[in-house]
Specification:
Number of strands: 0
Shape: globular
Helix content: 55-70%
Oligomer: single chain
Structural class: mainly alpha
């Protein structure tokens, strides 16, 4: 297993391609044998390889992106107990790649690939038995620059002039928060709930400013489905404002499906306690269903 990390591809490849493809082959091969790296010695070697210049810090974007997926796969496969000694080091490494320092702007990854890191970070923080204070500190460290980026984007004077481009950018930001929250599907500490609730408030601002973006509407609905699980009844006070905005701009079958799933999930989980959150949305929802059906006939 250790020798696998030093395998090199054929010598006839160009040096840069040899470096890039060799790292992908090595890390991918290790991914297929993930059960064998559960012992801490091998797991430490594996994480060192994946988080260093052969993996997440590799100069080639293709290698960095592939290792984002493999890291998430590793975290899910080896389990919380095995990862516990490495949590803070791995989370710090993820944060450096998600928000590279100005001196290393090239060590970035596309937003869709970054979602793997957000999900891996959430699992490491929420499922490895960390103290609530450590969970809050690390989650805040990851979310703060992310939230600041959203707020800067919302201040752009061209925001409504290019709905497609800004909508895609902001929807990926909303997705990142949803992916991070996967680590806390069941009863997160109140302190963590407060951090997630603050992020939800910022996402509501995105929906208010750019509701005409289909991707923003869809990703907001997905985030709310996650927050119903994470925040429990704490999400109910915010739901009317979200539902009002989503239904006001409900124009497609996907919009109808997203709204129906939200309303159903709220009713199933909270039963009569969901009434104040969904009561004002039912008639507008039915009107939108009818309007979409008529528009497609």
């Amino acid at each position: 297993m250790t020798s696998l990390r030093s395998d090199l591809p054929a010598k006839h490849l160009h040096d840069s391609m040899r470096s890039m493809d060799g790292s992908i082959v090595s890390e991918d091969s290790l991914g297929r044998f993930v059960d064998f790296v559960r012992p801490q010695g091998l797991l430490t070697l594996f994480l060192g390889s994946m988080s260093g210049e052969r993996g997440l810090q590799h100069p080639h974007e293709r290698v960095r992106c592939r290792c984002c997926y493999l890291l998430l796969r590793l975290v899910k496969s080896v389990g919380a107990n095995a990862m516990r000694p490495h949590v803070e080091a791995v989370v710090d490494g993820c944060q450096r790649l998600l928000f590279p320092p100005p001196s290393q702007p090239t060590l970035s990854i596309p937003p869709d690939e970054a979602l793997y890191l957000f999900e891996a970070t959430g699992i490491l923080l929420g499922q490895t038995g960390l103290d609530a204070a450590v969970q809050v500190r690390c989650a805040t460290a990851v979310l703060t620059p992310h939230i600041q980026s959203i707020e800067r984007t919302l201040q752009s004077p061209d925001l409504t002039g290019d709905v497609e481009a800004y909508g895609e950018q902001l929807s990926m930001s909303i997705s990142a928060i949803a992916q991070l929250s996967k680590g806390w599907s069941k009863h997160p500490p109140p302190e963590v709930q407060a951090v997630l609730a603050a992020a939800v408030d910022v996402c509501r601002n995105v929906l208010v400013v750019l509701p005409s973006s289909p991707s923003v509407r869809n990703r907001t609905a997905v985030l709310l489905q996650r927050m119903i699980l994470c925040l429990g009844e704490g999400v109910l006070p915010a739901m009317p404002s979200f539902l009002d905005r989503l239904l006001e701009h409900c124009a497609t079958e996907e919009d109808v499906l997203d709204a129906s799933q939200l309303i159903n999930q709220l009713c199933i989980k909270f039963k009569e306690r969901a009434a104040p959150a969904v009561d004002g949305a039912l008639l507008p929802f039915l009107r939108r269903v009818l309007a979409v059906q008529l528009a497609e006939t």
